[in-house]
## 1
Amino acid sequence: MPGGRSRLKHWIAIAGWLFFAWMGGPGAVAQTPPATGRGLLISDIHFDPLADPAIVKRLIASPPDEWEAIFQSSRQKSFSRYGADTNYPLFSSTLAEAATEAPFDYVIFAGDALRHNFPQAFVAAGGSSDQFPAFAARTETFVIQQLQNRLKVPVVAALGNNDSSCGDYHIAPKSAFLASMADQLKVLSTLREAKSTFELGGFYSMAHPTIANQDIIVLNTIFWSASYRSCVPTEGDPGEAEIEWLGWKLYTARLLHRDVT
């Protein structure tokens, strides 16, 4: 990814600002304030909490709710260099820039919250392999919390291939990592079925935040990759199970005359 401010434009895409141009017409959901018909798309953050070695031990010892203060205490104020993953100054600046694009109704986060080669980098930075799964989950939590708290609209999030507690393309079904992320996503807080399927496989379906009779289906495409490997033994093929689930969701949507995106 490009470095500095130019990289902002690479991992913030304002996805089809008129996402659904008929927002004010028949079938629109009344909003306070009114729905704008716009959505913000963010992808490939690749946040690196290890960028400042001086604060890594404090991060390992602290819950995600305390991380922002730790990052702000860091002497590292410049953006990460070209070709490196995203440090806190760049992440914070990008969210501030994204907020200036308001108003928008919701955010689609297309995944890859975590830095590349995270397990190896964590051990090299002074952590242990036993500590890594919890640290990866806390890093994912921090990114989701920042998106929700600073953009102040529903965040519909998907998984990327680096979003795992045991390595690239190695997400495990029914893992503590998925359960932790499900607990953080506010859009799942009142949706029992959606939260359950996310905890089990990292995919879910939910009603569109502003458009009546429309659902958003969020898929975990990692299960379908030729590079996918589970870090633990699994029962059956999670990718095949997800395909069956998707077929059922599309079938029921047709029966109920609901649109799907």
## 2
Amino acid sequence: SLYIINKSGGLIYYKDYGSAGRMDTNDSLRVASLWHSMHAISHQLSPVSGCLGIELLQADIF
């Protein structure tokens, strides 16, 4: 799946490339919001200066 979110965490674009377990619109909005929160928290907690936080999550099975 591809999620594009804005700086405030709003979902701008969503595309599902998988065939199994498609999510409805509300679930997609929840995942985008969760992703934005994880990105913002990881940016603040990173011990490495200049770290931009989590930008990519890649998995064979999720």
## 3
Amino acid sequence: MHSRPRAGEIDSGADIRRRRMLDAAVQAFARGGYHGATTAEVARYAGVSQPRIIQVFGTKLELFLEAHRYAGDLMLEAFAANLRPPFDAQSVGRTYTDLVMRRPELSLMIFNAFTAADEPRIAQEARRLFLEIVQLLREQGGAGDQELSAFLARGMLINAALAMQLLGREGETDWAPFVFGLPASVAGDSAVVEDAH
């Protein structure tokens, strides 16, 4: 994990401003993907000028890669805080569900790296994060191959449902219990995921 100051470090004003721009980039790329979002949109969300975005990050590709690392770091931190052997798929799944319900743009940002994997550096970054998640779940969480496969498959289903805006659509089937694999009362208010669109 590399995009944020490590625990115990004091954030400088520059760190805070950079993180604000990364949050804006995650929002923009979650909505439009790599090919659809623009640096002008990121600048607008961040409340800065487009030249400032370019000055800090360079190219749109570099911005996407750093935003992906940033979103991935937040996800890894959420997992790491709740992992201990033996692997508890329900507990870890709830961690992911809670994160998705609070910040759906993180999952959409990560999912959109898969859809832009025709760009070799994005494909490489997507593989890096995937393998880091697998390593964390295996080594810190004690997950076996079958548990990993089932957990990651559920995560992919959640990401796909978010990308399709399947959840929280008024007057339509409530897909949250199916997608999250939880009772409706536990899945919570799926309408919150519409905030990312």
## 4
Amino acid sequence: MSETAARLEPEGSGLLERRFKFAANGTTIGRDTMAGITTFIVMSYIIFVNPQILSFSGVEGLEAIGLPFNQVLAATCLVAGVMTIVMGLYTNRAYAIAPGLGLNAVVAFSLVAGEGLSFPAAMGLVVVEGIAVTILVLTGTREKIMDAIPLDLKKA
């Protein structure tokens, strides 16, 4: 047996191997753990940037209308952690889930600071937008719209 094949054999019939099938997927528990640590390090900036955006941290004149930094930090960590675990258990794949900073900046600086909406009203708009996109996906309309866009425009 080759050295590579020996390393990819199941490390036992433990719960983790039975659930995630490391050997069948050509990996090991150690390799997947290192990949998870690497992914966390790459994404960890979100833990601090998201609260800075939503609390208007360091933006003179806007800090009073921002969300509390520590609460947003805790919520960011909880949501990212829980949803990453749920996604991993549901898909049996190593997908990391975290808040998208582009939409957060739109909410904070365009809707709240620019248009004067409250954070609850701005978040309500995000929910409505999410429902609209979900309906477009479930009805196949999103795919029809994407198919109608010329390939050259998509590549641009």
